[in-house]
């Protein structure tokens, strides 16, 4: 069901009146229409299937000799995302780190970002968002394992209530072979390495002692 922009605009006008504003003053005349158009983008994931971007896969077992198959996880770090907290309809945004254990076929890296975009474009809670991304990849790719870490800042915590402007929330969702304690720790370590590299601008190589 598509967003009813006319109804959203009318309700936004009512909201402005309810908080004591004048929706007809110059600065607010176009606000209901703007909010309605923003809602189309913010909630576009309600009508989308997060597994659809995973339909087209790539056979990596065949190519220049020698032929081979993947033996380790594929990890994409630092995928930016934004979503809307369903409790207060305030935004939260941050970074996602997504890994999966493929078989003979993999998916384009942009497809993982698209799965994240679809699931994020809904009223959400962060815990569910990560689980839905993990489910889509696990079932859509028949992946042996999936790891999804989200690190996000929530305006409902930063700007109201407890007002903790520097806080972020980390959640982890796992499936299959990447759900073991050892695998979770390994994937988390690779994520931390990436964060350290960005912070220090110094190269860090996994598995090697640093001078």
Automatic annotation (TrEMBL):
InterPro entries associated with the record: GTP-CH-I_C/QueF, GTP-CH-I_N, GTP_CycHdrlase_I, GTP_CycHdrlase_I_dom
Reactions performed catalytically: GTP + H2O = 7,8-dihydroneopterin 3'-triphosphate + formate + H(+)
Entry-linked NCBIfam families: PRK09347.1-2, PRK09347.1-3
Organism: Microbacterium faecale
Transmembrane segments: none
Similarity comment: Belongs to the GTP cyclohydrolase I family.
MF (Gene Ontology): GTP binding; GTP cyclohydrolase I activity; zinc ion binding
Lineage, broadest ranks: Bacteria, Bacillati, Actinomycetota, Actinomycetes, Micrococcales
CC terms in the record's Gene Ontology section: cytoplasm
Domain GTP cyclohydrolase I: 11-187
Record PANTHER family: GTP CYCLOHYDROLASE 1, GTP CYCLOHYDROLASE I
Binding residues annotated for Zn(2+), in chain numbering: 85, 88, 156
Protein name stated in the entry: GTP cyclohydrolase 1
Keywords: GTP-binding, Hydrolase, Metal-binding, Nucleotide-binding, One-carbon metabolism, Zinc
Entry's Gene Ontology BP terms: one-carbon metabolic process; tetrahydrobiopterin biosynthetic process; tetrahydrofolate biosynthetic process
UniProt entry tagged with the keyword Metal-binding: yes
Superkingdom per UniProt: Bacteria
Pathway(s) annotated for this protein in UniProt: Cofactor biosynthesis; 7,8-dihydroneopterin triphosphate biosynthesis; 7,8-dihydroneopterin triphosphate from GTP: step 1/1
EC number: 3.5.4.16
Subunit record text: Homopolymer.
Keyword Nucleotidyltransferase belongs to the record: no
């Amino acid at each position: 069901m598509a967003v009813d922009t006319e109804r959203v605009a009318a309700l936004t006008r009512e909201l402005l009146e309810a908080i004591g504003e004048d929706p007809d003053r110059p600065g607010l005349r176009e606000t209901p229409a703007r909010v309605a158009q923003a809602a189309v983008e913010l909630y576009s994931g309600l009508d989308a299937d997060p597994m659809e971007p995973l339909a087209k896969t790539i056979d990596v077992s065949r190519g220049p000799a020698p032929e081979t198959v993947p033996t380790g996880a594929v990890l994409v770090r630092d995928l930016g995302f934004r979503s809307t907290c369903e409790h207060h309809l305030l935004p939260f945004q941050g970074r996602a780190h997504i890994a999966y254990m493929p078989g003979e076929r993999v998916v384009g890296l942009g497809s993982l970002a698209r799965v994240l975009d679809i699931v994020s474009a809904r009223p959400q809670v962060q815990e569910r968002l990560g689980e839905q991304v993990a489910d889509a990849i696990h079932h859509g790719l028949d992946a042996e394992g999936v790891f999804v870490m989200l690190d996000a800042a929530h305006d409902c915590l930063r700007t109201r209530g407890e007002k903790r402007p520097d806080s972020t929330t980390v959640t982890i969702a796992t499936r299959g072979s990447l759900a073991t304690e050892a695998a979770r720790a390994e994937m988390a370590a690779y994520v931390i390495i990436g964060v350290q590299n960005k912070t220090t601008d110094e190269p860090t190589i996994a598995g090697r002692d640093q001078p």
